[in-house]
Amino acid sequence: MTAIDENGQVVNLLEIEAKELTGKYFCPSCKSELFIKNGEIKMPHFAHKSLKACDLWLENESEQHLGLKKALYQWFKKTDKVEIELIFLNLSRGQIYW
Question: Alpha-carbon distance 2 to 85, whole Å?
């Protein structure tokens, strides 16, 4: 649900509509290029063009997993600062951090 844009800024699909995004996006962990999956069934999310370069990024999250991440993010955001898919020392990715 997060990526780095061409200007080095974090893009969070829970904060911006996928259809508003243009340009290139990159994995916060391996820096390889991502694309946006924005269909009619699953919620919008970023995906690697190739997984060869990334060992840390979790791919193929179920719709239920994505939905629960979104719900938790929105719930924590009501009272606290929250980040989603935060990279910890480039070693692992936390799902939600508050």
Answer: 7
Q: Which amino acid is at 11?
A: V
97 pLDDT higher than 70 = no
Helix (H) or strand (E) holding 58: none
Residue with tokens 């997993």: 65
Q: Residue 51 and residue 32: Cα distance in Å, rounded?
A: 9
Provide the sign of the torsion angle of the four alpha carbons 71, 22, 47, 88, taken in this order.
Answer: negative
Identify the CA nearest to 16 among candidates 3, 6, 30, 29. 3
Task: Give the pTM.
Answer: 0.67
pLDDT in tens, 29-61: 888 899 888 888 778 888 888 767 676 555 567
Say how far apart CA 98 and CA 82 lie, in whole Å: 5
